């Protein structure tokens, strides 16, 4: 692996760039210029969502960049109020329209058990929602499909009726937050793990062990986090609104963490808290 545009293979053979650019909390007013900065810095994989309120601006940045569509990877996600076959099908078309694209490279169910459907039928709603993604995948609107914030028991609900297995599970993975059960189950079932909040949403930078390892390697804490993620075989999705950070976060291929450094990071249990529990999340 030599650059952020090297790829992992998904279970359907699709090649996905190994680092994606995150856009949560990137306000629509600045999203176009921020995403343009990322494209100038070499990112070819952008992670957005209907929930982020910036799909239109992300789409404008892509269009104005002049980069050929086939050289870009764009992921979006189904918001929590669209869990049914019809609503999910409409939401896919709306994301495509807002982004100004004919297809998405990857579309994810954002959360498995949203508050609006947390009733005795949530499993059936989830299965219907997945069927909408499968149909859009078969129709060529989505080149790959997957899930986000799914734990083993959510994946098992899909398994009861799925025709196409999820290719990706996007979950929170950063130093101190490694949900081993979900990681192992997802991998055993053919999914690539995308690591969201790979910098602990900005909370990792003052962590002493991370600072020590940054000193040892001559890199920044952010670069150490991203390198750690890649060496574990995850696909990190760093977010920034600052061009210098955006650029720095690509410089993670000119060093390697030793097994001992990897172990010290693995041992940092809970230093930036844990992922939101999808079964109790209030959204
Ligand atoms: N599926 C899901 O439910 C979720 C998905 N995600 C995805 O993952 C992406 C990343 O996660 P997110 O939680 O946003 O945050 P990150 O873990 O990527 O951390 C972002 C924070 O770190 C700062 N930062 C970034 N690079 C550097 C650097 N080199 N030096 C110093 N500070 C830096 C940013 O600052 P600044 O922005 O000020 O430059 C920002 O405050 C999201 O944007 C989204 O795409 C995130 C959460 C949930
Ligand atoms: O960023 C995302 O993709 C999320 O789903 C979460 O960050 C979520 O929106 C949240 O944490 C709200 O507080």
Automatic annotation (TrEMBL):
Active-site residues (renumbered): 52 (proton donor)
Molecular function terms, GO-annotated: oxidoreductase activity, acting on the CH-OH group of donors, NAD or NADP as acceptor
Entry's transmembrane regions: none
Keyword entries, A-Z: NADP, Oxidoreductase
Residues of the site described as Lowers pKa of active site Tyr: 77
Sequence ranges assigned to domain NADP-dependent oxidoreductase in this UniProt record: 19-269
Top-level taxon of origin: Bacteria
Annotated positions binding substrate: 110
Pfam families recorded: Aldo_ket_red
Similarity field: Belongs to the aldo/keto reductase family.
Protein known as: Putative aldo/keto reductase (Oxidoreductase)
